[in-house]
Amino acid sequence: MPETAALSHHGQDRHDAHKLPWVNKYVFSIDHKVIGLQYLFTSMFFLLFGFMLIMLIRWQLAFPGKPIPLIGGLLSQALAPGGIITPEFYNALGAMHGTIMVFLGIVPMGVGAFGNYILPLQIGAPDMAFPRLNMMSYWLYVPGGLLMLASFFLPGGAAQSGWTSYPPLSIINPGQTVWLVGMLFLIFSSLFGAINFLVTGLNMRAPGMSLWRLPVFVWAQLVTSVLLLLAFPPLQAAAILQFMDRVAGTSFYIPEGLIVGGQALAASGGGQPILWQHLFWFLAHPEVYVLILPAMGIVAEIIANNTRKPLYGYKEIVYSMFFIGGMSFVVWAHHMFISGMSPALGNFFLVTTMIISVPSVAVLTCLVFSLKGGSIRFTTPMLFALAFLPLFGIGGLTGLPLGLTVTDIYLHDTYYVIGHFHYVVVTGTIIALMGGVYHWFPKWFGRKMNDAWGRVHFWTTAIFMNGIFFPMFIQGLAGAQRRLYDPTAQAHNIVTQPLNIVSSVSAWLLFLAQIPFLVNFFHSIFKCEKSEENPWRATTLEWACPSPPPHGNFDKTPHVYREPYDYSPEGYLSDWRPQHQEAGARP
Amino acid sequence: MEKLINNYGWGLPVAASTVAGGIDFGIRIIHVAMFVIFILWAIFFTYLLIRYRRMDGVKADASHGRLIWSLAPDVVVLIFEISLIVLYAIPAWSRIKIKFPTPDESHNLEIVAEQFGWIIQYPGADAKFGRRSPALVNASNPMGLDPEDPAAKDDVIGVNELHLPLGKPTLVQLTSKDVIHSFFIPEFRIKQDAVPGMKIPVWFEPTKAGQYELGCAQLCGVGHAIMRADVFVHEAADYDAWMTRQRPQFSPQE
Amino acid sequence: MNTHATTISGHNPEFATTGIPNGKLGIWLFLSSEVMLFATLFTSYIVFRTSAAAWPRGWDVLNVPLALVNTLVLISSSVTIVMAYAKTLERDQKGFRLFMGLTIALAFVFLGIKTFEYRSKFEHHHYPSSSIFYAVYFTTTGLHALHVIVGIIWNSWLWHAAAKEWDEWWFPGRIEYAGLYWHFVDIVWIFLFPALYLL
């Protein structure tokens, strides 16, 4: 059945939903809610898996050359003889940690899970514009992820050249071909998803839902989709060229006269190693905003809901997101100040980089100003959203010395960089995603997560995340380099080596802190108190249908009468007025 | 190693080149500014959380102050960044990475990075670098120096040991044999990727005699961590004395 | 919900806030990402060429007459697919089948000539690994050929689906979107031909 037609048959589908065979209902489903949950569970698995990889690395960094206790013996002898991980395995762990966290964990959760589930509901649509394409996106993501996982067990092992895969190293290292094929799957998955989100967000809005009535979360998803749509194809092209270099013997990234291990490399030459870096960062910088924009959207929703007042500067936030999205295409080479590209270009990218920081400051300012005059409920999701503000702030501020050409000469490729982007992505995005899980859990499963355990989860998580990443700034300033198998092999790192132990212990504790979350999450799906349909008393449309919503979402297409965050309206007894509430009616 | 560790501490390492001071100035001023911004912001944030916490019988105020106030942080950040760019970053960047000392006034070197070490070519008495060819590379001739070239006769090759004189800038032509490496001497605050197929100039002028460390800052394979070299900075006279003790690659005795 | 109330233009009035049908918006977004893909390849081509020590003249090493024929074949197929669309709007199923069939046949002719070109290159021991020029030639034309193959599959599926879905409101839209894609494949070749063979 054609995609668009499927929608018009919804009335009929709803009655047939319970008759669908199990496999069509839960596995090859075309319902955006089922696909959203599939993304949620799969990406949670990959986030945990990627986290486990880095916990092995953290052992080697804290206690280089010592066998890993307890689980060291479980690893194969080839990867970790006697429980001591080899440099090859160390590099594979590092490369796969980055790849899995970014492409298989955070993006699928922020966009695939939250976007898929919430966006159609927030605009009052019965489903995505192309439900079958939506299913295809998920089923391209899964084999991409399985390929990445399988690469650990294939001959040659997993990719070892960093998630950035700089050639020529990535061309002579084993494992890279599988990585490239996996990436192509993930790129197609993201591209189809982006098209679907844009068409849905623009075309499937309920009557009355004008663009300036869209919740910030929807805007964030739309800008994110534009970035995915236009930034991924260059990486796709770059990956095809690297694939050709590895498989067909071309020399796109191989210059003439390479001597590898004393042997001349058999290649025609004529290639440009730096070209890859340009193409890679042309994707990977917008990708940073793909990671952060949905998080900002989630935080904005939670803050508006829990301050019980409209967001401060709604339009300013949306315009800032447009501006961030547009500018993110012209800042990529600030990752390459010392790469050997023309230093004069450095000045250009320095200026664009400084400019892009301004709208990010604007978004953060608006979110903070939204607290003023509010009646702040410190619910569990709100705690996460509030923690996002200062911690993402630290991530943003520490980007300053890295975006400045001169200071980047020293700080580039040190632990300072790792600290910076983990503050943005972990204490920024992941904190926001966790908040989003607590916020929308009642929507997904019709029950609330346990609040006390949620608070335990929040405080332990926030503390241990800082325990991991704050020491990295000190290490970086002291000169410690990143990606070293044995940090004590060079004098730079020895003085600050105790900080590696602090980071590592914090990382393991952070893992333990996730156990209450996981138990709470899975227990609450089946057992916890049933929630009301709209437990947070939220105004946006996703709460205008039952929780969880039936197939087809809304019993009757909602009509939208007002802006998204009409909290504490003047002259009303109640402190909220839903978007779909008719003008005259009082709750 | 013992001696090198003394160069490092819990803050920035020893500053031992003419550009280090400028870079440290930038790092310090930014961190002071970041700290001040963050503390002021955190005070405001904490105030908001306490002042506007949920209280019984108090309803949120749906109206907003004038939008103009929220632009204040943007303006402050913008002014700070513009002054950093114009007054500091562009001039300093151009001094370090765009303007180079002339070869005549410099101590000239060619450095080739490989998995996993640094090979240094000193031009010898004739101040000319001998021709190199990838085809001639072998275990005893790691640079692939061409014995037919008269300029190569007095060239000295060093592996994982870099010797520098005080009193004049060193101008390096940097390249790589195999993959991308990165030339990083933390005490000099200098870093530059070494890219195969490209010759990239790097310059720095040491200011203190002593021993420093050259590391590879770009992931280059399994031996990335052990890819390091010792840097020795000598007084000019000591450097000349050291140089005369070196045997050229194609010394007549061989 | 009455699906038959919708018009023949492929526009489903119920869900199209912007007034542009979902499929049309979707295909344009998809093509914008395709533009980025090929723009990247063309940029890379410029980078390789401007930094290359030597770059052969296309007409010295490649078969220009064959490529010219191929260009004409593709342009003709763009005309036939427009005719197929026109016949759909005219509700002339036979005409549609004829012109869509011609489009598919022309695409096969294009691929046949391309295969012949590749074979003669291989016979003269020119492989993607031979030089950066051949690397660019084989990769870009290969990727374009992949797009042609996708077009053949898409068009054949429509040709086949016409029997069942001819009277559905969405059918003309389907043909239009396939046509947009096919024009894009055509345009890419119009850029590739001079870049590789003539410049």
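Residues 77 and 84 of chain C are 10 Å apart (CA to CA).
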